[in-house]
Design brief:
single chain, 482 residues, alpha/beta, Aspartate Aminotransferase, domain 2, 2 domains, seven-stranded mixed sheet, three-stranded antiparallel sheet, 16 strands, 47% helix
Length: 482
């Protein structure tokens, strides 16, 4: 039989790897091995996904060579007309997709997006009144005395955010992160019995603490957040409501989260990554109302270095994809799969934080369910072809490094086309591995929180079944690198 012609995608990626291989073959080999590994393993990391070939290809081009500090039409470098085009397209798609008044698509990551948001609020709420009081237009015009006073004011603001063990994020004011060095932070947690946000306790904390910013959003909370109530609390105490929707942006874009559970109508400022459930390139984005758009647009040079035009081009492509009707179906299936995975695990005896899920992720209490630490469970699953990540649970006795939980999410496997039936089987594979795994010992023979023991036969059988399961749902079937 005559050889079938290569697909456009296969030809593009093969050619790219050939060009790379001619310079540094080890990089080309690593890239090829990465797609091979991803094709073979069950990817259940809630913050990972698979970007489309068009999105991936949009990142590898001559936009990478261009400096473009500033914003559309107001650059510090000449020759940015094509950058203006892709940045405008990405922002327009973002506004239409989310129903936002303003979109800023330059942030390089989620932390960058959060920093832009924090400093936009500080510029509006702290800097602007100081400039008005001093009778000047910009900080360079302040006297040394007034500038010193403003700097002290910047460092004396308060933030209220979700605690790490309840599912919050390090960038929401915690000391190891720069946000914790910027703000006096207090955390709100969850009800110790239900695991759900206690809004009245949150309200009481806000009344006492009087924060400048209340941050909503999460990285490991398996339920929904009522942003209408969050805005009511923020308004009551004179705080700005900021929502970090990095994890669930795809569910907002896909209209799975609406009304009280859609942050856009309720928060003054919303940040997100553009990968995760949104299925775009790695990067960040800020959406806001009209009151903050001028401050947000000063993200570069206020916080950011030069924008990454090649990534903004990829964001424009991914956001255009997310505006298609098929993305709404995809977002709905993410949640259906997540619930099916939860039901399969609970039926097999696993304990889940909050008992289940309403979104794209689940949090398994592996300590109480299987007698393992999160680190042991993560390693045993990886050995068996299942990629997850360990995560703290509320009041975690094992701390943030070893943890007592495993976080699992369904965006990536849903992209591959797996459905509810497959989720139940995957729940069985997870349960088998964690049931068979046992805590290991240190070199001195004492109990270890890191080491585990698992029968190699079990790990091999599960890995082979995971691989077999995925053969029916090929990753990038249009791309053949052989």
């Amino acid at each position: 039989m005559p050889e079938q012609p290569l697909s456009t995608e296969s030809a593009a990626f093969r050619a790219a790897l050939d060009v790379i291989r001619a310079v540094e073959p080890r990089v080309a080999d690593a890239i090829g091995q990465e797609i091979a590994d991803q094709r073979e393993m069950l990817k259940l990391i809630a913050s990972e996904n698979y970007a489309s070939p068009a999105t991936l290809l949009a990142m590898g081009n001559w936009f990478s060579d261009k400096y473009a500090e500033g914003t559309v039409g107001r650059r510090f470098y000449a020759g940015c007309r094509n950058v203006d085009t892709v940045e405008s397209l990405a922002a327009e798609h973002a506004k239409e997709l989310f129903g936002a008044r303003h979109a800023y698509v330059q942030p390089h990551s989620g932390i960058d997006a959060n920093l832009v948001a924090f400093w936009a609020v500080l510029a509006q709420r702290v800097e602007a009144p100081a400039l008005e009081k001093a009778g000047v237009r910009q900080v360079n015009d302040l006297s040394e005395e007034d500038w010193a006073e403003l700097r002290r004011a910047f460092g004396n603001q308060r933030m209220l955010g979700m605690s790490l063990d309840a599912g919050g994020h390090l960038t929401h004011g915690f000391r190891p992160n720069i946000s914790g060095k910027m703000f006096d932070q207090r955390s709100y947690g969850t009800d110790p019995v239900t695991g759900l946000i206690d809004y009245e306790a949150l309200r009481a904390s806000a009344r006492e603490f009087r924060p400048l910013i209340i941050v909503a959003g999460y990285s490991a909370y398996p339920r929904l957040v009522n942003f209408r109530i969050m805005r009511e609390i923020a308004d009551e105490v004179g705080a700005t409501l900021m929502v970090d929707m990095a994890h669930f942006a795809g569910l907002v874009a896909g209209k799975v989260l609406t009304g009280d559970f859609d942050p856009i109508p309720h928060a003054q400022i919303v940040t997100t990554t553009t990968h995760k459930s949104l299925r775009g390139p790695r990067g960040g984005m800020v959406l806001c109302d009209d009151s903050l758009k001028d401050q947000v647009d000063r993200g570069c040079p206020m916080v950011l270095g030069g924008p990454l035009p090649h990534v903004m081009a990829a964001k424009a492509v991914a956001l255009a994809e997310a505006r298609q009707e098929s993305f709404r179906d995809y977002a709905r299936r993410i949640v259906d799969n997540s619930r099916a995975l939860a039901e399969g695990l609970v039926r097999r005896g696993a304990t889940l934080v909050t008992g289940g899920t309403d979104n794209h992720l689940n949090l398994i209490d592996v300590a109480s369910s299987y007698g393992l630490t999160g680190r042991q469970a993560e390693a045993a699953l990886l050995e068996s072809g299942i990629v997850t990540n360990r995560n703290a649970i509320p009041a975690d006795p094992n701390g943030a490094w070893y943890t007592s939980g495993i976080r699992i999410g369904t965006p990536a496997l849903t992209t591959r086309g797996l459905g509810v039936a497959e989720m139940d089987e995957i729940a069985g594979l997870i349960d088998r591995v964690l049931t068979e795994a046992v805590p290991g010992t240190t070199g001195k023979g004492t109990p270890s929180k890191a080491q585990h023991a698992l029968d190699l036969k079990v790990a091999d059988e599960v890995a082979r079944r995971a691989s077999d399961l995925l053969t029916g749902f090929p990753l990038y079937p249009e791309i053949d690198l052989s």
